[in-house]
């Protein structure tokens, strides 16, 4: 029987699931792990490594090991986000044709979708080994706040990996689906998803009849665990510079070790109050003696280093509630998704803001892939166990409009409109006897108030 797999293509980790006999199962990789690092490497011998194998050799092969490609996907070379990644990454990011981003691995240059495709192909393989059959179709998730370029590039990655991406669905919507599927509940829930690279929050109404309706969604496609790690790296680099007058950022291997140590410290601080970061022989003093890095980081200090990042997520959450026209008392349950929600300050801040303890029922690392698998199975089965039991009503995360004279955007479909939808509006041309118009569709951007007159002008 044909199978559709659900893939959560994460910034840091990816996960694959499939529905079998009406239940979604998360598929473990060969090493027995249910999530696979979204990392790709090329060895000196020209061998391609993906997942744990790539992660394991990242320090010794830093220049040819790619992580967090999702932070680059669908973005242009000259965007501030690409500039930021390019200035701190241990691998090489260069400008390609048409202002695109290219990643070089051992002299060969790859597009970002090509790199993401290597991760998707690995997830496909993990599923095929488990199912004992070839897999062609997949539902792939993206952050709700991804724009059309980022979605299209993710689809391209699927195609390069030999997958037919039958649907792209939003990560928080997938999580809500996994949370509510088959439970016969009728409630308003907030999904707070803070992963390795992105932040999303969605408010949904889940109906007992299997309807999952998104009321509002917001997020930041450049806010996640990586930024928390960066704060620790900065703190370590500055401390080392004060002590030894040496900039560790100049050394790729040192940088990769710092990145590793920073993430490890962050994860440990979710369960202990203090960690010691110890990196012997981190760099040479230049006078033929090795220098060591050794510092203690307390949870309180770490929380101070990252408080503004957590506050940013709370502000976005407040905005989403306002957009939905709801008050915090209207939220009946909170679903936490993403590895970063294990950080005590994050959990505490969400609980404090919404005035309730988050739901404990879902697995923050697996819930998105499970939702994708459920959706995949529902799209495939006409009369199978999941068919007709799921209706997803998602929204446009950002306002869509048209460019009018003066380069301004005339909004046509406001953000949080349930899709599919259609809108019409009459525009007049700016010159007499004009026989052609250029129509430019715009997404997001600064929205100016719509004029009361129904005629904009288009040139
Ligand atoms: N116990 C923990 N405490 C704090 N942070 C953690 C913990 N476990 C994992 N993380 C962090 O969570 C992040 C990874 O989360 P997750 O796997 O959900 O992200 P992702 O799905 O790959 O990314 P995204 O959804 O943003 O694309 C990493 O930054 C990781 O360091
Ligand atoms: Mg995620």
Entry keywords:
459 residues; alpha+beta; Nucleotidyltransferase, domain 5; Actin, Chain A, domain 4; 3 domains; six-stranded mixed β-sheet; five-stranded mixed β-sheet; 10 helices; disordered C terminus; binds adenosine-5'-triphosphate; binds magnesium ion
Notes on the protein architecture:
- This protein has 3 domains: 4-184 and 362-391, Nucleotidyltransferase, domain 5 (2-Layer Sandwich), CATH 3.30.420; 225-303, Actin, Chain A, domain 4; 400-458, no CATH class.
- Helix content is 32%, strand content 28%.
- It contains 10 helices and 24 strands.
- The protein has helices spanning 52-56, 80-88, 112-131, 148-160, 171-180, 225-244, 252-268, 299-324, 344-354, 367-380, and strands at residues 4-8, 13-20, 23-26, 36-37, 40-42, 48-50, 65-66, 92-95, 101-105, 108-111, 137-142, 164-170, 187-194, 199-206, 211-220, 274-284, 290-298, 333-337, 391-393, 400-404, 408-413, 427-429, 441-443, 456-458.
- Strands 1, 2, 3, 4, 11 and 12 form a 6-stranded mixed sheet that branches. A 5-stranded mixed sheet has the order 18-13-14-15-19, with helices on both faces.
- The longest helix is centred in the C-terminal third of the chain and has 26 residues, at 299-324.
- The model is unreliable at 446-459 (pLDDT under 50).
- Magnesium ion (MG) binds next to loops.
């Amino acid at each position: 029987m044909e199978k559709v797999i659900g893939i959560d293509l994460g910034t840091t980790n990816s996960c694959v699931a499939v529905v079998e006999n009406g239940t979604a199962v998360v598929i473990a990789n060969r090493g027995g792990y249910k999530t696979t690092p979204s990392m790709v490497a090329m060895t000196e011998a020209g061998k391609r490594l993906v997942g744990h194998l790539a992660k394991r050799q990242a320090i010794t092969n830093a220049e040819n090991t790619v992580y967090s490609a999702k932070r680059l996907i669908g973005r242009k070379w000259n965007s501030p986000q690409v500039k930021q990644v390019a200035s701190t990454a241990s691998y090489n990011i260069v400008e390609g044709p048409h202002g695109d981003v290219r990643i070089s691995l051992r002299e060969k240059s790859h597009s970002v979708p090509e790199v993401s495709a290597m991760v998707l192909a690995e997830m496909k393989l993990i599923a095929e080994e488990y199912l004992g059959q070839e897999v062609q179709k997949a539902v792939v998730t993206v952050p709700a706040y991804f724009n059309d370029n980022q979605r299209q590039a993710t689809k391209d990655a699927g195609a390069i990996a030999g997958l037919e991406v039958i649907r792209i669905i939003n990560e928080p919507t997938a999580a809500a689906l996994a949370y509510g599927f088959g439970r016969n509940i009728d409630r308003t829930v907030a999904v707070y998803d803070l992963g390795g690279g992105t932040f999303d929050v969605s408010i949904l109404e889940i109906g007992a009849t299997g309807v999952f309706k998104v009321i509002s969604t917001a997020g930041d496609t450049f806010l996640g665990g990586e930024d928390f790690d960066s704060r620790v790296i900065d703190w370590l680099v500055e401390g080392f510079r004060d002590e030894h007058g040496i900039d560790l950022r100049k050394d790729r291997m040192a940088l990769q070790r710092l990145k590793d140590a920073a993430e490890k410290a962050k994860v440990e601080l979710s369960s202990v109050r203090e960690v010691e970061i110890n990196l012997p022989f981190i760099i040479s003093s230049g006078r033929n003696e090795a220098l060591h890095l050794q510092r203690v980081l307390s949870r309180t200090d770490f929380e101070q280093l990252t408080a503004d990042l957590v506050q940013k997520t709370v502000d976005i959450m407040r905005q989403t509630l306002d957009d939905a026209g709801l008050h915090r008392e209207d939220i009946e349950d909170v679903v936490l998704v993403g590895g970063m929600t294990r950080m005590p300050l994050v959990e505490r801040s969400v609980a404090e803001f919404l005035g309730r303890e988050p739901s404990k029922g879902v697995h923050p690392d697996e819930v998105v892939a499970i939702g994708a698998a459920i959706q995949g199975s529902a799209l495939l089965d006409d009369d199978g166990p999941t068919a007709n039991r799921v209706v997803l009503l998602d929204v446009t995360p950002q306002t869509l409009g048209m460019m009018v004279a003066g380069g301004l955007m005339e909004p046509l479909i406001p953000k949080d409109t349930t899709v599919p939808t259609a809108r019409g509006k009459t525009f007049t041309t700016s010159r007499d006897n004009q026989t052609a118009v250029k129509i430019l569709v715009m997404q997001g951007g600064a929205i100016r108030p719509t004029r009361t007159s129904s005629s904009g002008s288009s040139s």
